[in-house]
Amino acid sequence: MKTAWLRKEGAEELLLFFNGWGMDRRIGDHLLAESLSDGFDADLLLCYDYRTLETEPGFMREASRYGRITVIAWSFGVWAAQHVELPLIERSIAINGTLHPVNSERGINPLVFESTLATWSEKSRNRFNRRMCGSAEALALFSSMSPDRTTADQQVELEQLQEHFLADSPPCGAEWRYDHSIIGGRDLVFPAEQQYRAWKGLPQTVIADMPHFPFFHFRNLQEVLACIR
Questions:
Q1: Which of helix, strand or coil describes residue 20?
Q2: Which domain holds residue 59?
Q3: Helices marked H in 37-150 — which ranges?
Q4: Strand blocks (E) in the chain
Q5: In angstroms, rounded to a whole number, what is the distance separating the alpha carbons of residues 38 and 16?
Q6: What is the pTM of this model?
Q7: How crowded is the C-beta side of 101, counted as CA atoms within 13 Å?
Q8: Inter-residue contact 77 to 22 (CB < 8 Å)
Q9: Are 180 and 90 a contacting pair, CB within 8 Å?
Q10: Domains in the chain: how many in total?
Q11: Neighbouring residues of 1: CB distance < 8 A, sequence distance ≥ 6
């Protein structure tokens, strides 16, 4: 797993943002800029690229210094956050993802996942981004923060994620559980019905018109955190 400090000012609270598959820091940079303008005062560490689930040297030492740690995880980042070593987590939110990421009942249909992996290309990436964003207008906005990664690089990450899923290793984060799930009613990647089943019994915020990409419905990180306050 790769990490990038987007804000490191010695704050009391650390927000760990687990990004989705194939992403990099650009979405995090966008969210931080929007959040700072509205008074965001926590430190922010972005986690992404799950080809390996080992944390980078110094990660645990740096993160453990904080008195309060919050996890916001999106898409495959929801699963990844539970499978990397983390300090004690105080609160956590899952957005449009589950702990069973490739599963016909509680995640992505395995046939859809296999097809995505087998046919990944520049053309299929464009189709995927359109499905993820939900509309041509949202896709145009997403282009300003889309990841600076090649399709080959993303495909390798997806192959490694498949190996992680097949290994079915127990969560490293067994000492913490998600407190809240946010579900997009128009999610075409993790269908809403599968998310409902996956998070049965957990408090949920359902946003009927939200597609898989949630960060046009949530203007900043404070709006995400408000779901569990």
A1: coil
A2: 2-228
A3: 59-63, 76-81, 110-118, 122-133, 136-142
A4: 2-7, 13-18, 43-48, 68-74, 91-95, 180-184, 204-207
A5: 19
A6: 0.96
A7: 27
A8: no
A9: no
A10: 1
A11: 47, 48, 49, 50, 52, 53, 54, 55, 56, 80, 84
- The domain that holds 105 is classified in CATH as 3.40.50.1820
**Strand 2-7 with 91-95, pairing:** unpaired
Token readout for 103 is 């599963």
End-to-end, the C-alpha distance of the chain in Å comes to: 29
Question: pLDDT tens digits for the chain (229 residues)?
Answer: 999 999 999 999 999 999 999 999 999 999 999 999 999 999 999 999 999 999 999 999 999 999 999 999 999 999 999 999 999 999 999 999 999 999 999 999 999 999 999 999 999 999 999 999 999 999 999 999 999 999 999 999 999 999 999 987 777 755 799 999 999 999 999 999 999 999 999 999 999 999 999 999 999 999 999 999 7
